[in-house]
Amino acid sequence: MKSRFYIPFSILCLFSCAQQADKETVVADSSVPVQESPVLLPDSLIQVPSDTAGQEEAIQVLKGIFEAYTAHEEGIDSEDNKNAVTQHLRRLGTVRRREDLMLLINMWHYYDPTDYSCRQMILDVLLRDKAAAIAALEYRMQHKKRWETGTTEFHYLLEALKAGQ
After folding, report:
1. What's the rounded Cα separation, in Å, for the pair 97 and 100?
2. Of 15, 21, 59, 96, which one has the greatest count of Cβ atoms within 10 A?
3. Which residues, including other chains, have CB under 8 Å from residue 141's CB and lie 6 or more apart?
4. Is the Cα dihedral 92, 97, 103, 107 positive or negative?
5. Residues in Cβ contact with 84 at an 8 Å cutoff, skipping those fewer than 6 apart
6. In angstroms, rounded to a whole number, what is the distance separating the alpha carbons of residues 87 and 90?
7. Cα-Cα-Cα-Cα dihedral of 12, 98, 54, 156, to 10°?
8. Which backbone phi and psi does 127 adopt, to 5 degrees?
9. pLDDT value at 73 more than 80
10. What's the whole-model pTM score?
11. What letter would DSSP give residue 73?
12. What residues contact residue 122 under an 8 Å CB cut-off, 6+ apart?
């Protein structure tokens, strides 16, 4: 019979990151409190915040509203949807998944109902991880839809991200 054992996730993270860590060893005086320096993990090992369900729910709601808005090709949306967009954009923490970043970029570009703008709120979310947002935007600009003729609006967003506004 094979025996199974449990290895805590934190130990696995340390083990897999050990290859990337500097080989420097520091000996601390036991009377002086030691402050640990943060360990940078590869993206595949980043632990998601505890409110993952809330973030995922916010993304799903935003996706549903955006898809319904673009399906009707109208410049209007209900007050309930506008309020939901505002509420769920405020719930979002740092967004790092490319799929989610693409949704936010597309919303910034195309979701523009009459008398409502969420561009600044979306920009605020994107600025939480500026490097990931810029990479996703550059990817989006290189892979535009067949019917998209230009990327001028995306350039405005790129400039705003780089400026950190």
Report:
1. 5
2. 59
3. 151, 154, 155, 158
4. positive
5. 61, 65
6. 5
7. 140
8. -70, -15
9. no
10. 0.64
11. T
12. 89, 104, 107, 108
CB 92 within 8 A of CB 55: yes
- Is residue 113 within 8 A of residue 79, CB to CB? The reply is no
Q: Tell me the per-residue pLDDT of 107-136, one tens digit each, with 9 for 90 and over.
A: 998 888 878 889 999 999 999 999 999 999
Spatial contact of 93 and 128, defined as CB atoms under 8 Å apart: yes
Please, are residues 101 and 93 in contact by the beta-carbon 8 Å criterion?
A: no
Quick one: tokens of 112?
């523009």
Q: What does the block give as tokens for 27? A: 């000996």
123 closest CA partner among 160, 162, 69? 160
Which residues, other chains included, contact 47 with Cβ-Cβ below 8 Å and sequence gap of 6+? 9, 13, 41
